[in-house]
Amino acid sequence: MDARARLREAGRIVVKVGTSTLAYGPGRLNLLRIEKLIRELVDLSNQGKEVLLVSSGAIAAGLGKLGLDKKPDSIPGKQAVAAIGQGMLMHVYEKFFAEYGKVMGQLLLTKENAARHHQYIHSRNALLALLEMGAIPVINENDAVAVDEIKIGDNDSLSAMVATLVDADALIILSDIDGLYTGNPQKDPEARLIEEIREITPEVEALAGGAGSTMGTGGMMTKIDAAKVAMNAGVTMVIAPGQKDGVLHQVLDGEPVGTVFPAKPSHLRLRKSWLAFGKRLAGDIVVDEGCVRAMRDQGASILAAGVTECEGEFQQGNTVRVLGPNRQEIARGIVNYDIETLRKILGRQTREFPDLLQGKIHEEVIHRDNMVLMV
Prior knowledge:
Layout lengths: L2 H5 L4 E6 L1 H4 E3 L2 E2 L1 H16 L3 E6 L2 H9 L8 H25 L4 E6 L1 H5 L1 H16 L3 E6 L12 H12 L4 E6 L26 H6 L12 H13 L3 E6 L5 H6 L6 E3 L8 H9 L2 E7 L1 H10 L8 E6 L6 E5 L5 E6 L4 H7 L7 H4 L14 E3 L2
Parallel strand pairs: 1-4, 1-7, 4-6, 5-6, 7-8, 10-12
Antiparallel strand pairs: 2-3, 8-9, 10-11, 12-13, 13-14
Helix pairs in contact: 3-5, 4-5, 8-10, 8-12
């Protein structure tokens, strides 16, 4: 069954909507668009589907309340505007949900909720409890207390994390862009929409541009990163035009809308999901082709002999990306050495470690039990 056909059978769906879809500009919410979105979500729920909404827009709403025409430059300023706007945005959501006879429940998350395993589990349990009660969860990052979360693409990443948390069947990211193109459609008249991407390669990543609109915080690259997470967690993801009426039903009816990223067949166990998608990424290590083959074919651990480069500021116990020779992401895992120590043993055999290192010696740079393949 192809990806579009699988979307027709999706029973649990995460929908992410960006600020550019919710607002005309600073402080001016698009109430007609919001009402149409809520009506579609409730209709899907009435069909028996479980629906979760990841919503941006708190800062945009707060700007209007304060009479400001642009975001503050400082982090505390953004946090204050978000605190004001979050209540206003939820009031609008609750009003529209109530008019269509549906209960909503707000949940504010930060990356800290994902980085700590017990918080990851509690967040999952809260979301599943809301679904069991028949409510529609509305989720946003807790921008009023977060620091490094107020940056480009946070809610794209958040939506992929939520889809992973709840074992969703589909993630639909509504955007002011129809999907991923072969070029910039605003500058290249020959750019064409790519209807399906089965694997995130360095070439696909190169097609993604920078940040999107001046109001939103998401760019195409963050959507590609979200697709990588979703696909490997067994979630089919679609980037679709948020301004198009009835777009959610069209996507879930299997129509050729936007760009679809098919789920990979195997679901990850919960602990592996947290390891791959909850933990913060602190750096990269690059491995040679022999190491890549051993990981894929034999499920092998990563040894220093197969590591060629390392980048970042990671410490022992941090999570890092594992890249192949062409810089494609192969895996994620918990590293047994800090970056300075790892640089001393790059390409070395384990028997050489006692002459190069002091303190505890680990045979593996990343043990297979603490690693998740991403290909």
